[in-house]
Structure formats: C-alpha cells, structure tokens
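tool=predict chain=A
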Amino acid sequence: MKQKSFYNKSLSFLTIVTLVLLSACGAKTAGAPTNGGTAAPSGTSAAQSSSAAATPSTASKEKVVVNIGIQGKTGVLNFAREKGYFEKAFQAAGAEVKWNEFASGPPHFEAIAAGRLDFGATGGTPLISGQVGGVDFKGIAVTSDGKKGNMIIVPKNSPIKELKDLKGKKVAVAKGSSAYNFLYMAIDKAGLKGDDVKVIQLQPDEARPALDSGAIDAWSIWEPYATTAVYQTGATILVTGENLNINAPSFLIARTKFTQEHPDLTVLFLKTYEEARKYYVDHQDEIADELSKSQKLDKAIIVDVLKNTFPILSSITPEFAKAHQEQADFLQSVGAINKKLDTSQVLESKFIDQALKK
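tool=predict ok
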C-alpha cells in the first residue's frame, strides 16, 4: 500500500522548486544564469569536421544568440564545448553560441522560464518539476535510459549494507534532481517510509565534503560524482538504478518559443550533438585520456564514469515516454506533486526524428 506520508519532505521540495520556477516566469530581461550558473565565453577551438550544414534562410537572417546549458565536467555537451562543435555549426548558420553553467538540472528550468536558456541536458525529474511549475519547454530527445547514472553511495567502512539500513540515517541529495526521485523510489522498494530517512538537501559540491567528514550517512548522486568518491575515499556503491531496474530517461530540453521561432536551428542543435556524440563514444580511450588530464583525475575513474554514462541520442520512443510518465505518476501517487501530469504534453520528437534522418 502506498504511503502518503512517504513524500512529506519531497512535497516541500517540489513546492519550493515550483515557486522558484513560477517566479522566474515573470522575468523579462536576459542576463547571466542564476543558482550556480555563470555565462561562459564561446569556445574558439576548432571543431571536428561538421556534417550539420546551415540552411541559406538561417544564414541570411540577423545573428541569433543560442544559449546552451551545461553541468558537470563530463558528457557529450562538455566534450562538444571543449572542441567547438557548436560554435562551428552555428557560426555557419549565422548564429552565436553562449554557454551557461549549472550545478544541477533544476536551475536549467528557471533559466528557460526567464528566457535565458534555449537548450540543455538534464535527468527526467527536473522535467517533472518544470512541468508542474508551468515552464514552457519541450523534451526533444532522449540521451540515456538512466539505469546506471544514479546511485546511492555510503562512506568507507559504513555499517549500511542494504537499503533498509538507511532507516534513521541522514542521506544527502540535490533537490529536484534525478537522484532525488531515484532516492525515494529506492526507499519505496525497500519498504521504508519518507519519515524513516533524514533527507538533507545538498548540491554536489556541498554533499561530497559532508560525506567525507561523516556529516551524512549516505549520498544519492549521479555520475561522475559517485565513481569519483568511490575511488578517492573508498566509498561504496549501495545500489544503482540498474540494480533496481529503474528506467529513468534523461533528455535534451529546449525552450518552446525558441523551437517555434528557429526550428532549423533546433534540428541543427540535435545534428551537432549527434556528431559530437558519435565521436565521443567511438574514441572513449582518447576521451578518458583528455578528461583525466584536464580534471586531474586518475584515468581509471574516468573510464568507469564513461561506462556508467554511455550516451545515446534517441527519439522519445513509447518505452521512454512510458518510463517518464511512470516517474511522474509515482511522484503524484505519494503526494510529491499535487496534480496528475500528462508528460506527453512536454515531449516532442519531431525535431530529433528530422535530425536523425539519413
């Protein structure tokens, strides 16, 4: 039997996220992103030879600024930024690229609501929060099934050996992130209630020191933070989405108005992402070498992270759409969100279908 009290804490978190998103909807001026986001200058490094060509109509128009959100230090978007893929593709289309950095997924939607972000990549839970908050966006492609990316880890020599041992323990997680929903779905599978666990809402840069110092007992987090903690501190992976068979797709997201005004640039964004993704997955050893040097991490860490975050680029298939709807239904059934969502309203495959045509 589902426990309505199970999500008392998560209800307050989603209420906060929704209020923030709704307040952001009233913003009229563009500027640097907030909540951990900082505008970064366009990269100038040469891209790999791009197959994504601009259309003549786009190139002849006044230059458009395309704002792309990014988080973490690994992944396709980070690689593409480093190599200048998008700069080259959009310059040919008469557009300029600006990068915006965020600590996690939810701030992307505040920026979209304020008209300061056009594209990004997040887990599925932030999409649910954004839809509850009335943000006008679309999930335009799937980048991962999410089974390996989210984990719950515990410190070295922790007495916690299985999920039921989390009862009464302090667990850190970033509010509104994919790891947040994953944590509560894992707790539910263990037969625990929300009040059985002391959830501490921390962003990754706050949670890692707390884990290292023993201020928290466990951490629900995504890659590369999980594997990095395992290698550097001897932390242990308690459970992954794969262990629990939790299919939680991640998405590329877009500001709806931008897709309407610039459908050709939306397709170009997806084509460029796919070009970068193909190189990224076909040259994993090279990518691992570069990341280990730039991030000053052991190559073994990067290799494991890459294995756990193997990127795809897919249309939003019925299976992925169903998995995303099930996440929203779960949140609603336990009182985490106060209304039933039809998540198909914010999922749109027409651009990715066009981009992936041979």
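The radius of gyration is 20 Å. Confidence is low (pLDDT under 50) at residues 1-60.
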